[in-house]
């Protein structure tokens, strides 16, 4: 690799996805149709927590890298706090 290539490579941002701590910050964008059925199902589960007699174990969200899991959690957090 040449010195010029290494200099240009040092300016490239490979951090193109959101991280788990990002669910606590509102996203700059949201595509409402993205994961709509899953979002609605999770929101219904959150609403049911108001009447729960015990603490739930949680939900598992599976999907390949880059499929929007962290984005979905951030949007769910934002909706639950409204």
What does this structure look like?
- The chain is an all-alpha fold and 82 residues long.
- It is 39% helix and 0% strand.
- The radius of gyration is 18 Å and the shape is elongated.
- It has helices spanning 3-9, 36-48, 69-80.
- α2 crosses α3.
- The chain has three helices and no strands.
Could you list some keywords that capture this structure?
82 residues, mainly alpha, 3 helices, 39% helix, 0% strand, single chain
In brief:
The protein is 39% helix and 0% strand.
Question: What is the number of E strands?
Answer: 0
Derived from helix and strand composition plus strand pairing, the structural class reads: mainly alpha
Strand residue percentage: under 5%
Q: Specify the helix fraction band.
A: 25-40%
Low-confidence stretches: none
The main pleated sheet reads as: none
Helical run tally:
3
Distance between the termini: 51 Å
The helix/strand series, from N terminus to C terminus, equals HHH
Overall pLDDT metric: 78
Spatial shape: elongated
Radius of gyration from the alpha-carbon trace, in angstroms:
18 Å
Based on the structure, what is the oligomeric state of the protein chains?
single chain
């Amino acid at each position: 690799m040449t010195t010029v290539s290494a200099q240009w490579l040092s300016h490239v941002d490979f951090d193109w996805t959101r991280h788990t701590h990002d669910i606590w910050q509102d996203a700059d964008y949201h595509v409402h149709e993205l994961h709509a059925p899953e979002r609605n199902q999770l929101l219904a589960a959150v609403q049911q927590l108001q009447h729960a007699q015990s603490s739930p174990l949680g939900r598992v969200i599976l999907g390949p890298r880059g499929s929007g899991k962290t984005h979905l959690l951030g949007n769910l957090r934002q909706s639950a706090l409204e």
